[in-house]
């Protein structure tokens, strides 16, 4: 017992083992986490769990990772299939060793120590100069949505106008401290029917050299307005050519957003058969369970309508059964909301207000009032502060950071 206890307590000395720089490919279900990157105010981030797993299986020093870099810094709620970290880890052999020992099974090792909603789905040896962020030559995102009631053809027309090199200042959230160049190259963009439910679900797929803060969520909000018939596809071109005059509009929900892939030159991804089978079947199990839950919830809704269609309530109002539809006051039919998840309950009051607005619309007909104010076209709305106005509004601490970065350019 004493010998075993001493062996378990023996400290791990990273320097005593071979090490190499690797890229690891991450997949995660973002709705359960408060973003990718570590934060001082919470430990519920993807990076925090990955670093803890790296320490647990003794792939990095106990005092933290070496040369850690992240490719796509996804926000709270956003998921990923192909995000990438780069860092130095324990290896089976040094690069110069001959012969080389079989590599460690990084995917299986880390996945054994990670929550099932975070998985390592590939790894690759890289040069010491490799950086997951700066070595990336492009990123691809997908945004999934229910297209019932939406004019998908008009949305596709609008989305196509994003292709090419443009100033996307009016399609992002301003971050003047870190970003001064709002020009990006969108290499491909389109709207496609989903593989699982083509009759109900579509997705935007967009590939660019890089993206601005909240660029895709801003883009989707504009495309949804086009899909509802509230804006013409031409509004995308007008916003791209408008300059630094972004109209005030909300962000689309982040939960349906997926970082699909990060692209690099000459990178050969590896995964063991064992690790692949485990992850592939886990995703199959999750998808099957969610398909069944979706069917269950839809059947419950249908039966509720069957029970009460034509029923008159105590106020003399008649309940009329109708298919789900997207109207100006009901954005929820596009992205939905999993009310069975306690993290969504903060949105309940907003949902009830929107239901009241939708009820007013249905009672008054298509020409009736949707809310206390009629819809205002994007180009007629108040605008956010310009880049110069944002700089003037910076706090003293942020202004010092801004000026320091400007001096380096």
UniProtKB/TrEMBL annotation:
Keywords (A to Z) from UniProt: Isomerase, tRNA processing
UniProt cross-references to SUPFAM superfamilies, sorted A to Z: Pseudouridine synthase
Origin superkingdom: Eukaryota
Cellular component GO terms held in the UniProt record: cytoplasm; nucleus
EC number: 5.4.99.12
Class of this enzyme: isomerase
Gene3D superfamilies: Pseudouridine synthase I, catalytic domain, C-terminal subdomain (3.30.70.660), Pseudouridine synthase I, catalytic domain, N-terminal subdomain (3.30.70.580)
HAMAP family the record matches: TruA
Similarity remark: Belongs to the tRNA pseudouridine synthase TruA family.
Name of the protein in its database record: tRNA pseudouridine synthase
Species, as recorded: Trypanosoma cruzi (strain CL Brener)
